[in-house]
Amino acid sequence: LPPSHSSLHPFFFPLSFFLTMAKVDLDGNPIKNLTICMIGAGGFIGSHLCEKLLEETNHKILAVDVYNDKIKHLLESTYQDRIHFHRINIKHDSRLEGLIKMADLTINLAAICTPADYNTRPLDTIYSNFIDALPVVKYCSENNKRLIHFSTCEVYGKTIGSFLPADHPLRQDPEFYVLKEDSSPCIFGSIEKQRWSYACAKQLIERLIYAEGAENGLEFTIVRPFNWIGPRMDFIPGVDGPSEGVPRVLACFSNNLLRGEPLKLVDGGQSQRTFVYIKDAIEAVMLMIENPARANGHIFNVGNPNNEVTVKQLAEMMTEVFSKVSGEPAIEVPTIDVSSKEFYGEGYDDSDKRIPDMTIINRQLGWNPKTSLWDLLESTLTYQHRTYAEAVKKAIAKPVATS
C-alpha cells in the first residue's frame, strides 16, 4: 500500500478493492473491468449470471429483457449502480445497437427454448432463435464487439447410435452417442416433425456466427448448454406463469410434486439426459467471460456427463428427494405414461441421448462440473418447496367459478 494508507486496517477498504487487486485470468494476466450487454438477463440463466457478476466482480451489466422479475432483487440492491435494466424487445428496438456499442462484451441468452412451444409455435420459435438474433450478431461484428452466444445441445439432434438396431453392440460405443463440438454430425427428424424448428434455427445462427468470425473477424464464443437446472428455472403453471403453460422438465415435475399429482412420463420417459447444476455452469461462463484469449472462436459443451439418467429415473429421484425436503409422503402412483402426441401435440420427435464430450472446455478453460444429481436436486427442490408450496396450496383450494 502507498505510505499514506499503510496504517489503515484492511477492513477500511471496500470488497471491490480486493476484487480488483486479486483478479487474474488463467494465464496470470489482470482482468480488466468490463461493461457487459446481457440480452435475456431477466431469465433463468441470466439471473444467476447477473448475481455472480455483481457479487464476485466489478463488471457492469446493461441488462436487456422484457421482464425483470427474476433480477428485481438485484436492481433494488446495493449493486444497483452496476446493473441497469433496459426493457427492450429485441425484435424491433433501435436502442439495441447503442447498448451493444456501449459494452465491451455482448451475451445473448434470448430464446424461445421450451419444447412445448416448438410444435405449437414453430414460427415464433424460428424467428426468436434465428431472425431476432441476426441484428445482435450484425451489431457485434460491425462494431468490433465480442459476442458470447447461447445455443443448445439440441443442435446435435439424434445420435448416430439411435439409427442402429436396438440390440446392436455399437449402440454402447461412445463414438456413436457422445456428442463432440468439432466432429459430431447434427441429425434432425423430417420437416413435418416441427419439434426440430428450435434446433435448426439454433444451428443456423451458429453457422452464421462462425461465418462472421471467419470472414469479418468477429470475436465469438458459442455455448451449448446440456440441461442446466436449478432455482428459478421456468415457472410453476398458474402460480408465477400461465395456468395452461407447459414448462421444461424440472418445473413440470416440480409442479406435479407440489400438487401431489403423478409425474407425466412422455413416451415412458426412456430418453436419456445429463443434468448440470446452474451454479456449476455459471462458473464455466465466468471463465469464458474473463479468458477471451482461450474462449474466442470456440464452441463449448457445458454439461455433466456423470449425471446421466433416463427421464423416468429423474422422475423417481425427484419424487424421493421432494418427499425428503417437504416431509410429505410420496403419492402411491408417482408416475403415469402419456404419449408425446397427447402431451406435446402433433409433430413431436425426440433425441435418444444427450451426453456431452468435455474435452474442449476442459483443455481450454480447465472447467469440470462438481455437483452430483442428487445434491443439485436436493438444493433445487428445497427452493421449489420453500418458494411455491403455500401458493400452490392456495391455488388448489381456490373455488372454481361455475356458470
List keywords for this structure.
15 strands; alpha/beta; 15 helices; seven-stranded parallel beta sheet; NAD(P)-bd_dom_sf; disordered N terminus; 403 residues
Word description of this protein:
- With 403 residues, this protein is of the alpha/beta class.
- It has helices at 15-22, 44-56, 72-75, 95-102, 115-120, 122-131, 134-142, 197-216, 249-259, 278-290, 292-295, 311-326, 340-344, 359-365, 373-397; strands spanning 35-39, 60-65, 83-87, 105-108, 146-150, 178-179, 220-225, 228-229, 263-266, 272-274, 276-277, 298-302, 308-310, 335-338, 355-356.
- It has a seven-stranded parallel β-sheet, sandwiched between helices. The protein has a two-stranded parallel ribbon with strand order 6-15. Strands 8-11 form a two-stranded parallel ribbon.
- Mean pLDDT is 91; it is low at 1-8.
Describe the SSE topology.
Layout: H1 15-22, E1 35-39, H2 44-56, E2 60-65, H3 72-75, E3 83-87, H4 95-102, E4 105-108, H5 115-120, H6 122-131, H7 134-142, E5 146-150, E6 178-179, H8 197-216, E7 220-225, E8 228-229, H9 249-259, E9 263-266, E10 272-274, E11 276-277, H10 278-290, H11 292-295, E12 298-302, E13 308-310, H12 311-326, E14 335-338, H13 340-344, E15 355-356, H14 359-365, H15 373-397
Parallel strand pairs: 1-2, 1-4, 2-3, 4-5, 5-7, 6-15, 7-12, 8-11, 9-14
Antiparallel strand pairs: 10-13
Helix pairs in contact: 2-10, 4-7, 6-8, 7-8, 12-15
Domain NAD-dependent epimerase/dehydratase: 36-303
GO molecular function: carboxy-lyase activity
Protein name: NAD-dependent epimerase/dehydratase domain-containing protein
